[in-house]
Amino acid sequence: MPPTAHATPPEDSLILIFGASGDLTKRKLIPALFELWKNGQAPENFAILGVSRSRYTDDEYRDACGNFDGNDLASDPRWAEFRDLVHYEASDATAAEGWPSIKQRIRTLSEAHRTGQNLLFYLSLAPQFFEPVIVNIGNNGLVTEGKKYCTIDTQRPPWQRIVIEKPFGSDPGSAAHLNRVLAQVFDEDAIYRIDHYLGKELVQNLMVLRFANSLFEPIWNHRYIDHVQITASETVGVEGRGAYYDSPSGGAMRDMVQSHLLQVASIVAMEPPITLDAEDVRTEKVKVFKALRVPRAEDVPEIAVRGQYGEGSVKGERYPAYRSEEGTDPGSQTDTFAAVKFHVDTWRWGNTPFYLRSGKAMAQKKTEIVIYLKPTPHALFREQAMRARPNQIVISVQPNPGIRLRFEGKKPGIGLNIKDVVMDFDYEESWRASPPDGYASLLFDCLRGDQTNYKHRDEIQSSWNACQPILDYWDENPAEDLPNYNAGTWGPSAADVMMAKDGRYWRND
Ligand SMILES: NC(=O)C1=CN([C@@H]2O[C@H](COP(=O)(O)OP(=O)(O)OC[C@H]3O[C@@H](n4cnc5c(N)ncnc54)[C@H](OP(=O)(O)O)[C@@H]3O)[C@@H](O)[C@H]2O)C=CC1
Ligand SMILES: O=C1O[C@H](COP(=O)(O)O)[C@@H](O)[C@H](O)[C@H]1O
Description:
Blueprint: E1 13-18, H1 23-38, E2 46-52, H2 58-66, H3 79-82, E3 86-90, H4 99-112, E4 119-123, H5 130-139, E5 160-164, H6 172-185, E6 191-193, H7 201-211, E7 225-233, H8 242-245, H9 252-269, H10 278-291, H11 300-303, E8 304-307, E9 309-310, E10 312-314, E11 317-319, E12 337-343, E13 353-359, E14 366-373, E15 392-398, E16 402-410, E17 418-426, H12 427-431, H13 438-447, H14 457-476, E18 485-486, H15 493-501
Parallel strand pairs: 1-2, 1-4, 2-3, 4-5, 5-6, 7-13, 9-18
Antiparallel strand pairs: 7-14, 8-12, 10-11, 12-13, 14-15, 15-16, 16-17
The chain binds NADPH dihydro-nicotinamide-adenine-dinucleotide phosphate and ligand LXAUTJHC.
């Protein structure tokens, strides 16, 4: 295997965003690139070419990005300078006819902005457009052949990288197909499969917490950890994305559990990497994915719960049922909530369960990882404790990012009474700043050739393999009780029952 690309500062490049008129580009990508540029973290020479079918001139497009949905980039004094780096090409990127013009723009802009030949293709498109656009990039000769055999270190060959958005397939077969399509045009070290949860500051902090602190690593295994809970709950429903969410590619299991939550779980579960090189880190993550126990069909009712919200009230406001959202089927079986008990079959984890859950229209917006420790071997204080509360390491990703240790302490005063107390690392208080947006951090990595926080093809394949039996079972056995939770609650009672059967409970604080 040739060595992986060495991480360098962000390199001069032209960034092509396909899906430029869309929500993600305007709400996240352009603001993230602006942020990098303002902080001096963008390449010295770079420019952006947005491509989508809507008709905009360069100036109209810049205006649209500068005033999008409350972003209000245009009010920043530095926007006027940055906007000149943003360009637009109206084109159907899935059709061959528009590509001569796209290529011409690439030539002109690379020259005008002195970006050299480095190209970053960002596919911010619906998944059905991934394949035709990748094929068109290849057919138009935009990817340099044989670059990985270049041995002259001082003259780095030009690179072409591709960032591909989620969803990456909707089952193991479609994910494998997309990987093959990508591999026909790009080498693996040029493919950046993005997962914006890997850009979140507290997710990136997980490796530091585990591997920079002798406090935690010795207890990070089945001997001391009773179980792990990972929750990503949202108060919003499907918000105008009903048609996508209700399609065979939608639902909470595919949208959140298979992708974001299993990614987070893999960092909780991985072995220490040999070094921090992307290849070493991803090798350890891949091992976790390969060790994920693939459930048998007959076990699915015991280890997985699906839910769908009915009418309810979120933050005091009436909330309509999922089935009455635009684009959904009145008899829809789509899961807007999923809870799954996974096992990582490795020496470290033994039979320690990882409970993952995610849902829309729930009681609170929160993403957190909770490590529940086992009780002490002998209950010395059983007379003093009202009830035994296991020690918890709570990693709050959002909101209130931070890490909180919950443990037993002596109540003040005469006599020996015990109560749980919290030791709190509050991110915003400690660093006097809010966490930066994940997209800025991930784009920065990509521009410097660091794939650590991007997904390897084997991670995706194994995560689909572990989820597919659940999805198949749900398809073959329609639920009769949907909708089974009211909007604004913590999901269906079946999810609590699943935990209670194991003598555990969800942390809903
Ligand atoms: N929005 C978000 O917060 C998140 C989005 N994602 C993912 O990002 C991707 C984009 O999402 P989002 O921005 O929300 O989607 P949108 O529907 O808002 O945008 C899709 C974009 O694709 C463009 N497009 C469609 N067909 C073509 C074509 N043939 N040629 C060129 N452009 C085309 C559309 O523009 P036009 O009609 O003008 O051609 C539009 O700009 C999806 O894969 C989504 O799953 C992931 C995480 C979060
Ligand atoms: O990828 C997705 O993530 C969002 C939730 O992201 P967050 O950063 O706000 O936690 C989710 O709403 C969306 O359905 C999903 O596609």
